[in-house]
Amino acid sequence: MIQATNFQPIISDEVLFKAIEAEKESIGYYTLPFQDTTHIKEYAATVKQQCIAIIGIGGSTLGTYAIYSFLRDATELDKTLHFFESTDPLDIAARLKFIDIENTLFIVISKSGTTIETISIFKYLHSLIPMSAENCLIITESDSKLNDYAVNEGIKTFEIPKNVGGRFSVFSSVGLVPLAIVGVDIDALLASAAEVHDSFFSQGEDYHSLVTKARFLVENKKEYNINVLFSYSTMLEGFNKWYVQLWGESLGKVDTTGMKQGLTPIGLIGPVDQHSFLQLIVEGVRDKTVTFIVIDDFLCSSSIPKMTLRGLESTDNVNGMTFSRLIQMQAHATIEAIKELQDIPYDVITISEVNEANIAKLMYSYELLTSLCAQLMGINAYNQPGVEAGKIILKKSLET
Amino acid sequence: MIQATNFQPIISDEVLFKAIEAEKESIGYYTLPFQDTTHIKEYAATVKQQCIAIIGIGGSTLGTYAIYSFLRDATELDKTLHFFESTDPLDIAARLKFIDIENTLFIVISKSGTTIETISIFKYLHSLIPMSAENCLIITESDSKLNDYAVNEGIKTFEIPKNVGGRFSVFSSVGLVPLAIVGVDIDALLASAAEVHDSFFSQGEDYHSLVTKARFLVENKKEYNINVLFSYSTMLEGFNKWYVQLWGESLGKVDTTGMKQGLTPIGLIGPVDQHSFLQLIVEGVRDKTVTFIVIDDFLCSSSIPKMTLRGLESTDNVNGMTFSRLIQMQAHATIEAIKELQDIPYDVITISEVNEANIAKLMYSYELLTSLCAQLMGINAYNQPGVEAGKIILKKSLET
User: Fold this and answer.
1) Which residues from chain A sit within 8 angstroms of residue B386, using beta carbons?
2) Do domains A28-184 and A209-377 have the same CATH topology?
3) Do residues B162 and B113 touch, judged by C-beta distance below 8 A?
4) C-alpha to C-alpha distances, A252 to A246, A259, B105, B169, B261, nearest whole angstrom
5) What angle do CA B94, B99, B100 make, to 5 degrees?
6) Dihedrals φ, ψ of B210, to 5°?
7) What number of other Cβ atoms are within 10 A of residue A41's Cβ?
8) Is A353 a catalytic residue?
């Protein structure tokens, strides 16, 4: 009689789980949902300005923008958020038109404290309106040069923990402070992230679905080197951008054996990109996985009027329908078309309604998914050594 | 003595050129630079409204947005352009806040005339403010149902030629009419596109550089299935989006042998995406080509103040520099870092200054490049059969 065992994955679920648990010792983002936010809320309540302008780039802005742009149009926020993140002079000029500079709190966010874009823009704005404890707040590491500056000037600071990287920092002071100021319920954000955390680390439902997804993506990374996120709402454009950074910068790495690894993220917005990128997904090379994000309730009742236009009677089939329902139907028609092809790997994330809990759940889950993929790929998700060479070249050319 | 010929490309330069020349018989975009614009300029001069709102999606808006967003902040335009393109109800509500609905000309653009997003949004806006010859303009094919509607209502129309596809329509009435209204010099756009046309079809410099590029991209498409456009200015964000549609929708096709083809476009903006996607390019799998776009002159003299901040003295190396120069140096430092790696195919497009001629040259060249790649891949660049299945599913579900 022949006896055989089945093939086993190189990294078993048990080893994978232990590796992630071990990361909790050194990687700070896992436990951010459990922090005390009292001091943040107390500070936020004291802010008088109506415009809040963040000066920062990359991980200092993308997570905050994702949450803000998701909630902004669907909920009533108290203040407006603005982002100065590019050294493009025309971009700076254009953004200045949208703020009342005399009624603006400037929040300078830089983990290292010497990010060239951030400090250059800060100096420029400082030359337009003097920065002081009255109109400026600084979020940085406790021992950075920017922190020294804040101490010298008596400017209030919040700390970015050393073990929380920029792209994993949305639930640290980086995201929570500006979001609390504009009126986002940050405790609801954290409570929802904590739920995902607990379900994951008790190996509940979230754990199994994330591990299954991570294994699929990593095991098929040679065939499907592109991961498309097809989000059916312009409110998710910020989330898409955050995802692109999280995925690209975390997973584009040299692994422990010296091999270059990487999965390429692409963010699409439906239905607009049905008229742009969809053709490539449907008839192009099978090198993509697709994750659809569909919103069940936009909290918005506006609808297509029951209106017949002479000549355009054939379009009356959507008369009376809410736009919310139309966009859902468009999403599901696209999903159905992809499903019928049978050779494009896809999954669907449904967001029940637009609120703090759901965006936090989505983002914390994606952080965990990223950590799982990195473990399976044998890479470090939390550094970014590849961007140093350009910085060194820039520094040298500035010296000459 | 042994005699040998060298390997020859499957499609010789001669055959390729003849194929493109033959396309001019049936594909309309090639000769758009030579049209008479008198009637467009005459109409544009009569428009009284200050806000111009385009209702359209995909090819009806992306090219116009690319040119408008490139020129908007650097030049003095007379009016503002707004885009209603998504059925997302919160997006519609947000965009309404930016226009003065009583002082807005609505331009409905749909080639087929029955695009569901466009007509639904049109009806909705029509319910907010009645549309008439006074505040509405329609751009569509001459025999579409939308054209019937316009004729019935006495609304002025401009025609989209049948043989000009949406993503190749920027130099037709689709782009020229709204751009002329807001004050863009459309003759300068066309003159520059005509120059590229003439150089290309006389097999001059533009021809040889585009053919070389197209051959490289197509011959290496299996290894490098992703084409990144890394544009160093937020003004090029619209161009990036237009490129993504042009490239994805034109080249994602089944070829004459039944094989699925496709090159995947990605648009990045520098320096912001140095803090996001660059790590993946540098250390990730070698599956990408990169085209950098660098602007020489932003026509903007704002600079980093000569300001020393206590604690931040180490950042004084950029003091006194214009932002325009800083962003250029950032671009060139990144290019240099990529060059040093020696295993990432890249090229650099330099835009001398921000004006009509340069954006038109860039866009017309990319249209030609797309046509060349499609010929080399054995596909039809000008249709989009892959998006029909979803439309049919949506139509069926609307009937039930």
Assistant:
1) 278-283
2) yes
3) no
4) 10, 11, 47, 37, 25
5) 135
6) -70, -40
7) 16
8) no
Q: How many degrees, rounded to 5, is the angle at CA B150 between CA B144 and CA B151?
A: 90
Residue B363 CA to chain centroid, in angstroms?
6
Topology (CATH level 3) of domain A28-184: Rossmann fold (3.40.50)
Say whether A275 is catalytic.
Answer: yes
User: Bridge-partner residues for B136, per DSSP?
Assistant: B106
φ/ψ (deg, to 5) at A161: -60, 140
Q: Is A155 a residue whose pLDDT tops 70?
A: yes
Determine whether the interchain pair B235/A324 forms a contact, defined as Cβ–Cβ distance below 8 Å. no
Compute the distance between CA of residue B258 and CA of residue B285 in angstroms, rounded to an integer. Answer: 28
- What per-residue confidence (pLDDT) applies to A399? 86
- Which residue has 């695009």 as its token pair? B115
H-assigned helices in chain A: 13-23, 38-46, 62-71, 89-96, 116-128, 145-153, 173-182, 186-201, 205-219, 237-251, 278-283, 323-341, 356-377, 388-399
pLDDT for position A1: 64
The pair of three-digit structure tokens given for residue B388, joined into one six-digit string: 């029909």
Which residues in chain B land under pLDDT 50?
Answer: none
Tokens found for residue B115: 């695009």
Q: Report the distance separating Cα A335 and Cα A291, nearest Å.
A: 10
- For residue A230, CA distances in Å to A2, A241, B300, B387 come to 48, 12, 37, 15
Q: CATH for B195-377?
A: 3.40.50.10490
Average pLDDT, chain A: 95
Integer Cα distance of B376 and B12 in angstroms:
10
* Band of residue A53 on the pLDDT scale cut at 50, 70, 90: very high
Catalytic residue among A48, A275, A306, A396: A275
The one-letter amino acid at A35: Q
**pLDDT category, A292, cuts 50, 70, 90?**
very high
- The verdict on a CB contact (< 8 Å) between B123 and A309 is yes
Q: Which residue of B has its CA nearest to A389?
A: B337
CA dist A145 → A14, A113, A114, A383, B119 (Å): 43, 6, 7, 21, 55
Tokens of A288: 């993509």
SS3 call for B185: coil
Cis preceding linkage at A265, omega within 30: no
Q: Which residues in B lie closer than 8 A to residue A80 (C-beta atoms)?
A: none
Contact between chains at B330 and A302 (C-beta distance less than 8 A): no
A343 touches chain B (CB under 8 A): no
CA A61 remoteness from chain centre: 9
A209-377 falls under which CATH superfamily?
Answer: Glucose-6-phosphate isomerase like protein; domain 1 (3.40.50.10490)
Q: Is the pLDDT of residue A9 over 80?
A: no
CA–CA separation, B207 and B16 (whole Å): 11
Candidate from A113-117, A295-299, A337-341, B222-226 with smallest mean pLDDT? A295-299
Query: What number of residues does chain A have?
Result: 400
Chain B residues close to A288, C-beta within 8 Å? 264
The phi-psi region of residue B259 (left if phi > 0; otherwise alpha if psi is between -120 and 50; otherwise beta) is beta
Peptide bond into B271 cis (omega under 30): yes
Would you call B203 an interface residue with chain A, using a CB distance cutoff of 8 Å? no
- Tell me the domain boundaries of chain A: 28-184, 209-377
Contact map slice: A 235-274 vs B, CB within 8 A: 235, 241, 244-245, 248-249, 251-254, 260-262, 264, 266, 269, 271-272, 274
Chain A residues in contact with B326 (beta carbon < 8 A): 87, 116, 120
Which position has the token pair 């010497």? A114
Give A303's contacts (C-beta < 8 A, 6+ positions apart): A320, A321, A322, A323, B124
